[in-house]
Amino acid sequence: MTLVANTIRGLAMDGVQKANSGHPGMPMGMADVAAVLYLKHLNHCPTRPDWVNRDRFVLSAGHGSMLLYSLLNLSGYDLPLDELKHFRQWGSKTPGHPEHGHTVGVETTTGPLGQGCGNSVGMALAERMLAARFNAGTYLPVDHHTYVIAGDGDLMEGLSHEAFSLAGHLGLSKLVVFYDSNRITIEGKTDLAYSDDVRKRFLGYKWNVLEIDGHSFEEIDKAILAAKAEKERPTLIITHTHIAQGAPTLHDSSKAHGEPLGVEEIKAAKRGLGLPEDQDFYVPDAVREVFAARARELDSRVAAWEADFRKYAAAYPDLAQLWDAGLKQALPPDLEAQMPVFDVAKPEATRVSSGKVIQKLAKALPWLVGGSADLSPSTKTIIDGAASVLPGQFEGRNLHFGVREHAMAAALNGMALHGGFRVYGATFFIFSDYCRPSVRLSAIMGLPVTYVFTHDSFYVGEDGPTHEPIEHLASFRCMPNVSVIRPGDATETAAAWLMAMKHTTGPTLLLLTRHNLPVLDRTVYPAASCLEKGAYTLWQSAPGVPALTLIASGSEVCLALDAAKVLAATTAVRVVSMPSWDLFEKQSQAYKDEVLPPACTARLAIEAGATLGWHKYVGPKGAVLGVDHFGASAPYKAIAEHFGFTPANVVKMARELLG
Fold it and tell me: Which of 357-363's residues contact partners 24+ apart within 8 Å by CB, and which partners?
């Protein structure tokens, strides 16, 4: 085991030195823990990296990526040694921080500290929920652990507090976190800014807490065995380690955190570790052999699991069918026909419409689960008739994240990464500020998480500027690989949910109103399914190229219609519903020109948010009615009047455009 750990140290030192960039200290400090975990405990399959019952390993301290890359190479994943030699280089499979989908065997993208902690809670939760649904009799098709390496920085980040508090409350006993307590950060020793009693903190979270010497193979092994034996609580293993263990002068130094050790330091370290100092990226045959033997053992475990699953499928065919459906998540061909029918005589907030759509989706998609950050009565995201997921009760579909928006988003990413469920989470749009880092990682990883963000504008009213999103729409629209949809009525809301379910390569944000909107009669107006193109002509007063185009999203669509019908007495006017810029940008130029004819230069965009970005669509001769200042506390109709979101003001601005 010593030779294995020292080989990992050598690879980490060499990779960072060759790149002249990276973090060697953490991989060297945690090499002993990693060696024991991978060779004695972690159930995974390098030849079948997508095996559904594998243990998940999350390197939350993602800056120490050379630890993970070394382990993947030694374990037999398709990550050749040459890739380690190209650490942090263009086109390599060994980027500076681990990237899910880029490097085989990497379970999640980490680097922003605390994110892996949140992801791991979602993975462990998904495991418990799947086990509650599918384990039957003596068959346990779902029975695996989630292991995490987290450092001092992870535990300082607020996200880890949120996520691990939730994990303790739920009793996610198959979550095991190694806390790499080396007491070093970039600026120096942790006592510069950090003096938490971590043991007491996690005992307060209702965790099982163990404390060991992180360089004692025996203590590491015993601690993992004890963690696996724990059936009621998640386990924190406080591993007291030395950063850059084995480096003669940089041992326990902050310089070893984020800088190469240097050629002479590495040579001296290798001499002390029993590695040839004149060979870089050295892997002894004995180390290759011990990992190869472990791989053969793991292959046999997978084969045994598959044999058991065939027996399980024969004994429980209905469960096996549901299992397969949850993994594939194919949408029924008639899903659109199953959507609710809305009464055009009854105005309705789009958050309420969304709640009705969720009920229909839940019946059609048994693998759909979700919840909110303590706001489900307002976000309308409870699945009727389904149980809540509670401590020791994981059969339900309704998730309760508490007032933990960031943990919610990070855990949803973990559930999506784990597989078996399609997930959504909800809060007020203003609190997307607390979710944003995790939404960004949803986008980077291409995860199909649906975010239901209600109370989407100043129409929140009396709650005032602290609760009224202004700049949020613009900020999410500029985030790559995020689909942002702001439907204009109940029928568009159903279409938006369908688009979210079809979108499997990134997150979808549904922005929904608190206040009631008219329900458009789709026998008069075009079908709401036109939303899939991002923008479409909703109404026009006369055929041909209009003299004026009003463009709106969300709650401003009906405002545009009201104004257009006044303007139509003297002007050929078109109303364009534009719920999604990103969907519109995916259309052909011919379609874009059809909706927004270049010959019509008098264009007015209307949206209850920042004007940033709208000038692309209104052009140099157009105008935007938006809000480039914070909101106010008053009844929403009074705010709308004061901010100019009235038919009369839209008519006035339009006539000014027309001269």
Answer: 357/493, 357/494, 357/497, 358/383, 358/424, 358/497, 359/383, 359/384, 361/335, 361/497, 361/501, 362/386, 362/397, 363/338
Tell me what the mean pLDDT of segment 631-659 comes to.
97
Tokens representing residue 24 in the block: 């060697």
43/300 Cα distance (integer angstroms): 11
Catalytic residue (choose from 405, 468, 556, 607): 405
Give the bridge partners for 508, in sequence order: 450, 483
Element (H, E) at 617: helix 615-618
SS3 letters for 177-218?
Answer: EEEEECCEECCEEHHHCCCCCHHHHHHHCCCEEEEEECCCHH
**Local structure of 203: helix, strand or coil:** helix
Mean pLDDT of 444-463: 97
Question: What confidence score (pLDDT) does residue 213 get?
Answer: 98
Alpha-helix runs per DSSP H in 213-346: 217-229, 255-258, 263-273, 285-315, 317-328
- pLDDT tens sequence across 412-428: 999 999 999 999 999 99
Residue 412 tokens, joined: 């949803």
Is residue 356 a contact partner of residue 339, using CB atoms and an 8 Å limit? no
pLDDT for 606: 98
Q: Identify the residue whose tokens are 């009464």.
A: 343
Buried b (16+ CB within 10 A) or exposed e, 430-450: bbbebbbbbbbbbbbbebbbb
Q: Rounded to an integer, what distance in angstroms lies between the CA atom of residue 275 and that of residue 118? A: 37
Q: Phi then psi for 38, rounded to 5 degrees?
A: -75, -35
Is 405 catalytic? The answer is yes
Q: Which among 519, 520, 653, 536 has a CA at the least distance from the CA of 583?
A: 536
Q: What is the pLDDT of residues 362-404, one digit of tens each?
A: 999 999 999 999 999 999 999 999 999 999 999 999 999 999 9
Q: Is the pTM of this model over 0.85?
A: yes
Concatenating the DSSP letter of every residue in 31-67 gives: HHHHHHIIIII----TT-TT-TTPPEEEESSGGGHHH
* Domains along the sequence of the chain with CATH: 2-298 (3.40.50.970), 336-511 (3.40.50.970), 534-658 (3.40.50.920)
- Count CB atoms within 10 A of the CB of residue 630: 12
Amino acid at 184: I
Token digits for 70? 């070394």
DSSP 458: G
Q: 19 is written with which tokens?
A: 């790149």
Q: Bridge partners of 178?
A: 149, 237
Structure tokens at 204: 């307060």
